[in-house]
Amino acid sequence: MSAPTLRINPVSPEPELIKQAAEALTLGQIVVIPTDTVYGIAQLASPTADPEELKKIKERPGEKNIPLLVASLADLEHYSTELPAYAKELAAQHWPGGLTLVVRASKAMPPQFIGEDGSVALRMPACNIALALMEAAEAPLACSSANISGKPPATAFAELDPLLAERVSLIVDGGGLSGGVPSTVICCLNKQPKLLRPGAVRVKS
């Protein structure tokens, strides 16, 4: 049986519906949400959260870390340390948008969301619903594409995998998404940026 669905206006999200979805996230539940690229499966990146629950729903290999959505440019500096100047410039140019930055995590990031190399992948989405959820829940969201690993991501509510829809606690329907392309991923751990995955944003070399 599919999880309950909340239909939220993507242009002007209704505060009472955002509050309902944010409460589910705060309780530790796994929620499908729209982003500016594809639909995502999300959980609150809180100290008590277990990212293995999200990976299990997606059937995602355990060694792969879940990227995080953040609500502002200020969050980039809050959740990272030893941040190169070029990383700040990339965020200023392309956030909110389809650019994920792999940075060295600060102590503010719950350790279970930090990779073995001390890194975390952060992105500020150009999505009113996702931003409103993070503002209401007062924390970043661990978020991966809403699909079983190896299958295509969903760009509309109707495209969600029925099996995945049965495994989550709530689905936020934000309508069709204009993005459809996963984010570009850039490593910012060294003196020079390194493209890890081409995607929604074209970045000059």
Q: Report the helical percentage.
A: 25-40%
Briefly, what CATH class? Answer: Alpha Beta
What is the name of the CATH architecture? Alpha-Beta Complex
Following the backbone from N to C, one meets helices and strands in this order, namely EHEEHEHHEEHEHEEE
Give the integer mean of the pLDDT values.
94
Q: Please tell me the total number of domains.
A: 1
Largest sheet: 10 strands, mixed
What is CATH's topology name? DHBP synthase
Radius of gyration: 16 Å
CATH homolog superfamily: DHBP synthase
Number of helices: 6
Assembly status: single chain
Major sheet: order of its strands? 1-8-2-3-7-4-6-5-9-10
**End-to-end C-alpha gap:** 47 Å
Question: Could you tell me the number of beta strands?
Answer: 10
**Structure class:** alpha/beta
What gross morphology would you assign? globular
Report a brief summary of the structure.
The protein is of the alpha/beta class.
Overview of this protein structure:
By secondary structure, the protein is an alpha/beta fold. The chain has one domain (5-197): DHBP synthase. Helices cover 25% and strands 20% of the residues. It is built from six helices and ten strands. It has helices at residues 15-26, 51-58, 73-78, 85-94, 128-137, 162-167, and strands spanning 5-7, 31-33, 40-44, 68-69, 99-104, 119-123, 141-145, 170-173, 184-187, 194-197. Strands 1-8-2-3-7-4-6-5-9-10 form a ten-stranded mixed sheet, with helices on both faces. A hairpin with a 6-residue loop joins strand 9 and strand 10 (194-197). The mean pLDDT is 94.
